[in-house]
Q: What sequence folds into this?
């Protein structure tokens, strides 16, 4: 049904604290990765790869790095923001069932990637579409996904033996969850509030004031 896709889109959350660690249902990982691999890509280059990480030692090493980067970021905040940030869980690396690192190969399809000659980042946008497909498919499977962004790309390349020239774009935690939050964590903690759609709409040209979807 048409309404099903809208339900999945609006239920999707960036999960951090609700992972159970239980095994994935049979076939779920293949279906989720299949959905990611079905994403559109510039010039049909399919510039992504997926590293499925179950090894506990690798996850613990990455988690220690994430905690260090969390401390680095916290040190840049004023006292009020630092206090608010201290109550926000930023990852589920150790609690989730497994992790998936999504990478970008800018040379895939070279030397002539159709459609990328004037927009160099079009390949990177394609990888983001694959990640979104993965996230929505996981939500439809009643699984949670958490995108961890507190890391240095060079560290992750070294940790996972990713070749030079291949860029790690996302570390995604994946697994069954107790539930999906009604509102995003950052909104629940008062860090940021959602921007309403009307504030993001412009008619024909960029305009400083809000517009509407009505004529």
A:
């Amino acid at each position: 049904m048409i309404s099903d896709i809208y339900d999945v889109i609006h239920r999707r959350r960036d999960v951090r604290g609700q992972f159970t660690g239980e095994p994935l249902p049979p076939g779920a990982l293949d279906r989720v990765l299949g959905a990611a691999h079905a994403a559109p890509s510039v010039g049909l280059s399919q510039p992504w790869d997926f590293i499925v990480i179950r090894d506990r030692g690798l996850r613990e090493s990455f988690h220690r790095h994430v905690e260090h980067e969390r401390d680095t970021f916290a040190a840049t905040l004023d006292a009020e923001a630092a206090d608010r940030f201290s109550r926000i869980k930023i990852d589920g690396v150790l609690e989730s069932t497994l992790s998936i690192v999504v990478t970008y190969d800018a040379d895939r399809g070279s030397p002539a990637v159709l459609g990328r000659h004037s927009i160099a980042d079009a390949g990177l946008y394609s990888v983001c579409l694959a990640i979104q497909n993965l996230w929505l498919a996981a939500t439809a499977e009643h699984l949670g996904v958490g995108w961890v962004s507190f890391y240095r790309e060079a560290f992750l390349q070294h940790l996972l033996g990713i070749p030079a020239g291949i860029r790690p774009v996302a570390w995604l935690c994946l697994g069954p969850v107790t539930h999906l939050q009604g509102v995003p964590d950052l909104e629940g903690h008062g860090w940021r509030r959602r921007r309403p759609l009307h504030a993001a709409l412009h008619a024909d040209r960029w305009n400083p004031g809000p517009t509407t979807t009505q004529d």
User: Anything to note?
Assistant: The CA atoms of residues 58 and 159 lie 7 Å apart.
